[in-house]
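To whoever is on call:

I kicked off a structure prediction for a single chain this morning and the downstream step that reads the tokens threw a length-mismatch warning. I double-checked the sequence; it's 277 residues and nothing unusual in it as far as I can see. Pasting both halves so you can look.
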Amino acid sequence: MGIVEAIILGIIEGVTEFLPVSSTAHLTIAEKLFGHSINSPDVVAFTAIIQIGAVLATLVYFRQDIWRIVTGWLRGLTNSSQRQGDYRFGWAVIIGSVPIAIVGLLFKDKVEHNLRSLWLVSTALVLWSVVMWWADRTAKQNRHEKDTTWRDTLIIGLTQCLALIPGVSRSGATMSAGLFRGLDRVAVTRLSFFLSIPALLAAGLLEATSKSSDISNGVGWTATLIATVVSFIVAYGSIAWLLNFIAKHSFNVFIVYRIILGLGLILLLASGVLSAH
């Protein structure tokens, strides 16, 4: 993989990781357009590894919140009188992260090899847009981040498992589930960021260690590291923009974009301009 290619893919990852438009779908489409085999082990690993850059951007951006939650959770473990908001929220994030860890490990091979078809990507983009539209339309938004419980994050975490299907979108799945639970848009967006940390970091590190030789003999570690650094820089700006945007707008712009992208991809596949694999 060339340096320019790596930079472009890093930008795509950084921009789309936290938007409810599916970063994996965008990376898969871009990798296909660049002529890569999207089912190749090195390309699959590359796609997961460069997400680490976006995770690091989350850690830096929310460092004060994360430190407060972690220290509050640790204090609550040894002192029952300290088991207040941050302690409960810490457990909520942990519980919400368990489902995707279990499902991801159990179905790792199927996800990497059987769910990379562009037909599936395009279909998921369109169909999950309907779910997002319904969630956004019916959202009560009468609960806030401080009201989040372990039941909320468990349900959101279970829904996050659907994001293993490229095109659904991890953030789109978690945000939709949160809205169905009555949480406001800013709360579900921030919660989506927190839940992304263990999920994406674990997936990226697992691929980096288990597919190291595939990367070396395929896309190359230089391109992978460059794309990861670029994704970190771009994702940091994307986080700030998204939080500001969501505070004032609905998800409609993302829903319309997803449908246009999905239908456009279906037309390209049906006309033979693109192949599914």
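Update from on-call: the warning came from a stale cache, not from the record. Cleared it. Sanity check on the structure: Residues 185-210 form the longest helix (26 residues).
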